[in-house]
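User: Predict the complex with adenosine-5'-triphosphate.
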Amino acid sequence: MPAKVDMDKIVSLCKRRGLVFPSSEIYGGLASCWDYGPMGVELKRNVRDAWWKAIVHERDDVVGLDTSIMMHPGVWAASGHIDSFTDPLVECKSCHLRWRADAIEGKGCPKCGGELTEPRMFNLMFKTSMGPVEEEASTIYLRPETAQGIFVNFDNVITTSRKKLPLGIAQIGKSFRNEITTGNFIFRTREFEHMELEYFVKPGTDEKWLDYWVKERFDWYVKLGIRKENLRLRQHGKDELAHYARDCYDIDYLFPMGWSELEGIANRGDFDLIQHAKHSGKELGYYDAEADEKYVPYVIEPSAGVDRSVLAFLIDAYDEEEIEGEKRTLLHLHRDLAPIKVAVLPLSRNEKLTPLAKEVFNKLCPNFVTDYDDSQSIGRRYRRQDEIGTPFCVTIDFESLEDKQVTIRERDSLAQIRVPIEELDKILEAKLKGEAFDASPLWATREK
Ligand code: ATP
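Assistant: Here is the predicted structure with adenosine-5'-triphosphate placed in the model:
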């Protein structure tokens, strides 16, 4: 069982293995901004792809969308973000640090104990100006959620997709929030990526669909390897609901700093479509031809963060174990999420082995994200692959030159099987789809 891990270990593994770096590091970094390195970019992309596959590709009642980050300022007036997207801010009168009033305990400054100012409401949207002449430019905002791009395109999608309700519209993209306090690595940042689904349903069926999506989303994390005992559902109290929400559940994860929100699933009712219809003057509704009735749909919104999911997957996958007196650090990442699927490792950098090893690499890389590594000892190379969660290593040794067979080593069990190079693609494909490592009797008989 993977060990409980503190955040420092995750941050250090991420730096060491090229997953996540501090942003602008050579300039001393920029608070709460992070860059994804060569391994991180693959992991993040796999998280997005797994979401898109489950939400859009594997269903016929959801379509995708990609809307712009900058939108007409009227959007944010209608959505309530200009008036209500605020957090209560307090400032310490001694050390001048600023805090989110609802996120601190006690009356004094958490840093120095100093007296705090009265809370004032602080808007979390980033403002910028659009247009070449600053004085004449109009004030616009960087979107704090991708959802509004979906609502303002509701009519475009309904009239062009020829789909009936219930219908979902999904979007993945950057959001920006000028959070008062950030931290815990990539858990809370000012620039992050959202994965949001707006699922439009007939009023009256909304509660049923809310339950449905809460379960779907919970199961998605479990299917991708997060242990159930590290997840919990929490319904929002009435006083906690956002200005648009009729009901809301959080999926919380047991992060090293304690239970915290991983995803929110809200029943937004008809708030957004009604608001946009009012502010834009365009009718936003749905005509149900079969029942010959017209209504404004309600919306169920599962809203997740890519970066926060990446963090939860990393934490849950992290493990340390002792093998023959040596410590092994590994990530038990689900095969769909692992940045590298297969590593091709010639036993040593030897002129006889290299051509065959390259041949194997060239054969695999069009089908799987494959790494080729012939530096350092084979033990160190295995350790590197374990630390980034590579499910399979393929080793080419001197015998391979004779019998045209290679060894596949599985990350978690360390079991090895020897297989013909000719069959390698097919075997790896089956294993990467979830076939048990020793499932095939043909290969099991040739083990080691
Ligand atoms: P919180 O209460 O933690 O500020 P929220 O309830 O405002 O979050 P939502 O608006 O529901 O968050 O956003 C949905 C999801 O987007 C969150 O569950 C989280 O995964 C992600 N998210 C929101 N804000 C941030 C942020 N500042 N940094 C990283 N991810 C974020």
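Residues 177, 179, 188-189, 192, 194, 261-264, 303-305, 307-308 surround adenosine-5'-triphosphate (CB under 6 Å).
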